[in-house]
Design a protein that fits this description.
Layout (H helix, E strand, L loop, with lengths): L1 H20 L3 E6 L13 E6 L18 H10 L3 E5 L14 H14 L3 E6 L10 H16 L3 E6 L6 H4 L8 H18 L5 E6 L4 H11 L5 E9 L9 H8 L2 H20 L4 E7 L13 H15 L6 E4 L9 E3 L5 E3 L2 H11 L3 E2 L2 E4 L6 E8 L2 E8 L9 E7 L3 E10 L12 E2 L15 E3 L7 E6 L3 E9 L1
Helix pairs in contact: 2-3, 4-6, 7-9, 10-11
């Protein structure tokens, strides 16, 4: 009897292991004939504090047309938008205000790096009545407008004014009403100097999100607003979060559910006012990230999913905030101080490959319940389908994905975002198209041909656990 039970248990274990090892079938069906507004070419961006514009102790500027490694990295990652702002735009108040030299370096760097547009932030908080920031802002705005108008998306005033710890530093701001009055006064000072100036705002910190929706409602008919901006750190504070927990939550469906909640509260209301919406700060955790999680391959998969999710929900773009230097940065120095990218940057580049064109509706049949998301875009005659398998750890499974198009295809090819041995916690060995991304030379990733079905409407691709595949289908 004991032998029988032992054999039965072993058989059960083997059956369970075999079931786990099987690759579930997932079908992604795309309606390529229906598509919405095109995704902005500068959807992918980075955000830096204004302090990053200042010269270092040796007099060198980080943002400079002579910083070739940084220029190369921006180009390789596909960064085409830049937001300069953050806490150091106004706090602490003794922080120097960037002058013409810093402005010239920033905008000339952007031109060399292929950045399309810049959001440039100016001070709003006043803790000393002797400091005439409205006058200073107007002079800066006039200089930027006269020299770099074509490179400027808009100006911004202040940073995260919805947070009490921020607005309590100001002499007059006590609530939304007093904030809006001050914002309008400062905006008027700029438009008196630059009548055609446009603004982004309020750069809310996801503290009192009603400030963002109230701002949109109050200014929707002013003719001044280029884009309504919000900040979003999906995981909240990262302090005390373990690496394992950080990775698990980053790749969980709950984070997409959190996106939906913020969309319902803020983005949908902004968009209903006929205004554009953009995240000028976004990342996984606002306290600088979770060590051994934010700076791992999980960050790449999350960033890719985050970009596609918000593109599919009509956002105008995402600027990942880059504090110099914390673990959830996209761009960071290596052990020798040379500029490089964290794995998260690979997620941005993967979106750059498959994130152009217009959103195409799709449906997913996933009876095996794989932790998987998929997104599609139509760009001319090309259909791009991105499949992200967020499964990781012992329960992770490879997915056999069949992509069904409603149009005839000439050919298809795929490029994979992977880490060594499918390790979501990997910090090295991450590749896109079999190639690394560096600041030393061009990215050399390659596409691999895929077989089409006999009716030229289907192609199949195996997407390993903890990886992503970008499939490009050339339609007839």
């Amino acid at each position: 009897m004991r032998r029988f039970l032992k054999a039965l248990i072993c058989a059960g274990v083997l059956w369970a292991a075999a079931a786990r090892s099987q690759s579930p079938v997932v079908t992604v069906t795309v309606d390529s004939r229906t598509h919405g507004a095109p995704i902005r070419d500068d959807f992918i961006g980075l955000s830096f504090g204004m302090k990053a514009l200042l010269a270092n102790r040796n007099g060198a500027h980080f943002f400079s047309p002579t910083n070739t490694p940084l220029i190369t990295l921006f180009q390789n990652l596909g960064i085409r938008h830049l937001r300069a702002g953050g806490t150091t735009v106004e706090s602490p108040p003794q922080t120097p205000i960037p002058g013409e030299t810093e402005i010239d370096n920033l905008f000339n760097f952007a031109r060399a790096a292929g950045v399309n547009k810049i959001i440039y932030s100016l001070r709003l908080l006043e803790s000393d009545p002797a400091r005439t920031y409205a006058v200073t802002n107007a002079a800066i705005a006039k200089y930027i407008w006269s020299h770099y108008q074509s490179d400027l998306e808009c100006f911004a005033l202040g940073n995260e004014p919805d947070l009490g710890r921020v607005y309590r530093q100001d002499l007059t701001i006590t609530n939304f009403t007093t904030y809006l009055a001050k914002w309008r006064a400062f905006a008027a000072a700029i438009t008196n100097a630059v009548p055609q100036a446009k603004f982004g705002g309020p750069d809310g910190g996801s503290g009192n999100v009603n400030w963002t929706t109230r701002f949109a409602s109050a200014e929707k008919d002013s003719g001044l607003i280029a884009v309504v901006t919000e900040h979003y750190y999906v995981g909240g504070a990262g302090r005390g979060v373990s690496a394992e927990k950080g990775i698990d939550t980053m790749l969980s469906p709950e984070w997409d559910e959190a996106n939906q909640a913020l969309y319902n509260k803020v983005a949908a209301r902004v968009l209903s006012n006929g205004l554009a919406f953009r995240f000028t700060e976004a990342n996984d955790h606002y306290s600088g990230g979770v060590h051994e999680a934010s700076d791992t391959f999980a960050g790449a998969l999350w960033a890719l999913d985050f970009l596609h999710w918000w593109a599919a929900h009509d956002a105008g773009g995402v600027d990942f905030h880059n504090t110099q230097w914390v673990v959830n940065d996209v761009i960071t120095p290596d052990a020798e101080g040379r500029i490089t990218t964290n794995p998260k940057g690979y997620g941005l580049k993967a979106f750059d490959l498959g994130g152009h064109g217009s959103i195409a509706p799709l449906s997913i049949s996933n009876p095996g319940g794989v932790n998987l998301t998929a997104y599609a875009l139509r760009d001319g005659t090309n259909l791009f389908v991105t499949v992200i398998n967020k499964g990781h750890g012992e329960a992770a499974r490879e997915a056999n994905v069949t992509i069904v198009s409603d149009g005839m295809a000439r050919h298809a090819e795929v490029i994979f975002l992977t880490s060594t041995n499918g390790n979501a916690a990997a910090k090295t060995g991450v590749t896109l198209g079999g190639a690394f991304i560096s600041a030393d030379g061009p990215w050399l990733g390659k596409w691999t041909p895929l077989m089409m079905s006999d009716d030229s409407r289907r192609c199949a691709v195996k997407v390993p656990a903890a990886s992503a595949a970008i499939v490009k289908i050339a339609l007839e």
